[in-house]
Amino acid sequence: MRIAQIAPLAESVPPRLYGGTERVVAWLVDELVALGHDVTLFASGDSKTHGKLHPVWPRALRLSHPAADPMAACTALLEAMSKRAKEFDVIHAHTDWVHLPLLSRLAVPFLTTMHGRLDLPGLSDVTREFPTAPFVSISNNQRLPLAAANWCGTVHHGLPIDLFSPSYQPGSYLAFLGRLTAEKGPEGAIRIAHATGMPLRIAAKIPRDEKAYFKQTLEPQIDGKHIQLLGEVNDKSKASFLAGAAALLFPIEWPEPFGLVMIEAMACATPVIAYRSGSVPEIVEENITGFVVEGEEEAVHAVGRLGQIDRHRGRIRFEERFTANRMAREYIDKYESLMRVRRLSKVI
């Protein structure tokens, strides 16, 4: 099958540091190639892939110096897609909404994986404009605000089975990994750590527009001993960071569409303690891969129950549910279904 994968241009594929969508796209492309498919990746020129790279823009936008015009980069992406669309059996876009007017008018099957939150104003108006455009959600909960969209399924993320080595030791600290924004719950993680008496290590990106929040709210609480800030981490340092933790804290304050860090922790055999919001109940299995809790009090109690978790069993459940191979095969089923529909429409 000839497959085009359309990635966002904010980060390279895979990203050098933070970047969930681009990381998932990298794993998906490489696994599709391993399964024997001809895959072309439309992404920034500093991307690395086992597929064929079509460099749409020289460098990822977030790390470009001087800063590039994102609209110019988006225009280049749409033009590249337009010129080459007929070369592919199916086009798989990960770029939210921007490609819909173009791909809806080209005679090539396509689908869109939505990677972000869908409860924002105006999105239902957009989906009504494209009633036949097929979408894939990354959790069943993610799609609830746009239930009327043309959903063709949910595909949970997956990562390479050998990307992280598991650790079956109890771990000596609590971990927080993600963006330092209020909705991700870093303040809650700090309070949980203080209440349990366990040290907290924070490996996180500080977004440009959240620097004031960090300076005013978080930095005064980071003492370098009980509460440590490690900064952004790459895959190599992330593996040891998660594997050495007693648990990953995921005290989110928003409807998380998926939460990639949860399955990264599971790959390391590290339990997850997460608030019941968004995708969490779909991803975390109670007493197997962690605990789903209602708030800080239950989270503190869950830390005290970590000895009940069999980390070997948690790793096995990761291998059963959240590998890149499983993800790729589910997407292949979606591609083949789209192609069958296209063939039938031609016959009719």
TrEMBL record:
Signal peptide: none annotated. Residues 18-119 form the Glycosyltransferase subfamily 4-like N-terminal domain. SUPFAM superfamilies: UDP-Glycosyltransferase/glycogen phosphorylase (SSF53756). Pfam families: Glyco_transf_4, Glycos_transf_1. One of its GO terms (molecular function) is glycosyltransferase activity. PANTHER family: BLL5217 PROTEIN, GLYCOSYLTRANSFERASE. This is Glycosyl transferase. It comes from Bradyrhizobium jicamae.
